[in-house]
Design a protein that fits this description.
mainly beta, eight-stranded antiparallel sheet, 1 helix, globular
């Protein structure tokens, strides 16, 4: 496929028909960038929302005092044990996976952890199989887990997991998950040096971006997403 190409000229300079040509093939870069919309359209247009118990479906909310608001996707469970609030990126308007490890996906998102219970598994965020129930053992995916007030990096292939203790988490951080041909790298704030690199239990299933928070011990749990993007390999 080709596209017409225009030559830029100086002010008052004239152009000619020859300045247009058809000899430039359409050229994408080697990767495709997907900005996973959380503000421009209703969340339900692009995301599958889910909640359990009296938990709330995530919602775009302007947070802050008058004149100081900032738009987040707010996940809130309510104050009953085992309530959840979560969402996963849809495929063509329906719940489904959007990429695979063979695409070498690179997911980046920002998250503010506002309130959680300090014991138990309370947050999962990253690339997971749409068909996997949150907070179950040996999930297919590569994701960050908050468990017992500690941040972990996890890769799982459905049969077993590799888990790395990343220590304390910040209230607000930028998180990235990068698939390579034989490994998965996890980044937290520092986008140069990975916080963890896994070469075992790499998922082989298709995946989607998924984020879930859970209440335990009747703690009203809340987190807020500021932005989310995904880069995948362009097939050639």
């Amino acid at each position: 496929m080709s596209m017409r190409h225009k030559r830029y000229v100086e002010t008052l300079d004239t152009g000619a028909a020859a300045d247009w040509n058809d000899d430039h093939g359409q050229n994408f870069t080697t990767h495709i960038d997907l900005y996973l919309c959380i503000r421009a359209a209703a969340l339900t247009a692009c995301w599958d929302l889910f909640a359990a118990g009296a938990g709330n479906n995530p919602a775009v909310t302007l947070v802050g005092a008058a004149g100081e608001g900032h738009a987040f996707v707010v996940f809130n469970t309510g104050g009953t044990t085992n309530n959840t609030s979560g969402m996963s990126k849809e495929l063509a308007g329906a719940a489904g996976n959007i990429t695979s490890p063979l695409d070498l996906p690179y997911l980046t998102f920002t998250m503010q952890i506002v309130a959680i219970h300090t014991a138990g598994e309370v947050i999962e965020m990253g690339l997971l199989d749409q068909g996997t129930a949150p907070f179950t053992a040996n999930q297919d995916g590569a994701y960050f887990l908050v468990n017992n007030d500690t941040l972990y990096a996890v890769t799982g292939n459905g049969a077993a997991e590799t888990i790395t203790d990343l220590g304390d988490y910040n209230e607000y951080s930028v998180y990235s998950i990068e698939f390579e041909s034989a490994s998965v790298k996890f980044y937290v704030d520092d986008m140069v040096n990975p916080a963890a690199a896994h070469t075992t239990h790499i998922p082989a299933s298709n995946l989607t971006a998924m984020f879930t928070i859970r209440s335990l011990n009747n703690v009203d749990s809340t987190m807020r997403m500021d932005g989310c993007g995904l880069q995948t390999l362009r097939k050639q």
